[in-house]
Amino acid sequence: MRSSATTSLFSDRDRRLLLAVAETVMPAGQIFPAAGEPAVDRLEQFLAATPWAAKGYRTLLWTLEASALLHHGRPLARISGAKRLALLESWRSGDYARRSALRALLAPLKAAHFSDPAFYRAVGCVYSQPVVRAESPRWMQERVLSPAEVAGETLECDVVVIGTGAGGAVVGRELAEQGLAVVLLEEGDYFNRGDFSGSAVEMQRKLFRDFGATMAIGNTSIPIPIGKTVGGTTTINSGTCYRVPDRVLQRWRDEFGLGEFTSERLTPYYERVEGVLGVAVARSEYLGGVARVIARGCDALGYSHHPLRRNAPDCDGKGVCCFGCPTDAKRSTNVSYIPLALRAGATLIKGIRVERVITESGRAVGVRARAGRAELTVRARAVVVSCGSLLTPVFLGDNGLANSSGELGKNLSIHPATSANAIFDERIDGANAIPQGYAIDEFHDEGLLFEGAFAPLELGAASLTMLGEPLVRTLEAFDRLACFGFMIEDTSRGRVRRGPGGRPLITYYLNERDVARIKRGLEILARVYFAAGAREVLPNVHGWDSLAGEADLERFRHAQLTARDFDLIAFHPLGTARMGVDPRRSVVDTNHQCHDVPGLYVVDGSSIPSSLGVNPQVTIMAMATRAAEKLAARLD
Question: Does residue 47 fall inside a structural domain?
Answer without folding.
Answer: yes
